[in-house]
Design brief:
single chain; 71 residues; alpha/beta; Hypothetical Protein Ychn, Chain: A; 3-stranded parallel sheet; 2 helices
């Protein structure tokens, strides 16, 4: 990953944003707030991750030329 890239965690991947190992320097880090709340983890997010809602999720996808998702 390069400095201009970003990471957005959704679904069960949001659990990574609650781990001290989730520090990824020099990257833009986002986590879908609704998925974090659904798992009861909204108060456990590690510094550096920015919460986004669905409209912001859509804005992020439009901000980058490519998006890659893993299941």
């Amino acid at each position: 990953m390069a400095e201009q890239d970003a990471v957005l965690l959704t679904e069960d991947a949001v659990m990574l944003a609650t781990s001290e190992q989730a520090e990824l320097p020099d990257l833009k880090l986002y986590v879908l707030e609704e998925d974090l709340i659904a798992r009861g983890l909204q108060d456990q997010i590690v510094d550096g991750w920015q919460l986004v809602d669905y409209p912001q999720f859509v804005e992020l996808t439009l901000s980058f030329d490519k998006s890659v998702s893993w299941l």
